[in-house]
Design a protein that fits this description.
- The structure is a single chain.
- With 194 residues, this protein is mainly alpha-helical.
- The chain has one domain.
- It is built from 7 helices and no strands.
- Helix 2 runs antiparallel to helix 5, helix 3 runs parallel beside helix 5 and helix 4 packs across helix 7.
- The longest helix is centred in the middle third of the chain and has 29 residues.
- The protein is globular and about 45 Å long.
- The chain starts with a helix and ends in an 8-residue tail after the last helix.
């Protein structure tokens, strides 16, 4: 076996591990979230999950007739920014205002676990099926929310889901207020040229 064969095998193993991680995240496998919490090298994988999930949403949303490449790209950039901000908010609220005695977390842990909680959003590509867009997007939103609560609970070392739900709710409210403030300061939601 030459060096290229060994590299191909390693690339294949990494790919299957990555695919396996996305599937486990979509299955709401708590051990997956514990694994990526500890794996400092999985940050770019988490970012990839966020990007893939947002691309699936963009393509699936095209089933409604509105979209286009510019909107898909804007959605992807927005998803990355939202992931980054959301992880910071949950980190801050969870470690400063609602920690449990055993809470030991850093920002990277939240980025990694929350990134993988976007995996269920990949089903939004099924929004391309006529008449299914709203249902698929609604189901994906609920599924992603449950994954996010698990991700937050694991990353913040909480003993139950209730505190994780509270952190998510507070973080969501703060993020909505920040978006509203940004929209107000910039004069409204910008329109894409058609």
């Amino acid at each position: 076996m030459d060096e290229n064969d060994q590299k191909d095998i390693m690339d294949s193993a990494k790919s299957s591990t990555y695919l396996n991680r996305m599937i486990r995240a979509a299955k709401l496998d708590v051990t997956l979230f514990e694994e990526v919490e500890k794996d400092h090298g999985s940050l770019f994988q988490a970012m990839g999950v966020v990007i893939l999930s947002s691309l699936c949403a963009g393509v699936g949303g095209a089933g409604k007739g509105d979209g286009g490449l510019a909107l898909i790209l804007l959605g992807t950039v927005s998803a990355l920014a939202g992931w980054y901000i959301w992880a910071f908010l949950t980190y801050y609220v969870g470690t400063r205002f609602l920690p449990e005695p055993q809470t030991q977390a850093d920002y990277g842990q939240l980025l990694r676990t929350i990134g993988f909680s976007s995996a269920p959003g990949m089903i939004r590509i099924l929004g391309l099926i006529p008449g299914m867009t709203v249902f698929v997007f609604f189901a994906a939103s609920i599924w992603m929310l449950v994954a996010m609560v698990i991700a937050v609970r694991v990353a913040l070392d909480y003993s139950n889901n209730l505190r994780a739900v509270a952190v998510c709710a507070v973080g969501w409210l703060v993020q909505i207020l920040l978006v509203m403030l940004l929209v107000a300061l910039t004069g409204g939601i910008p329109q894409l040229p058609v």
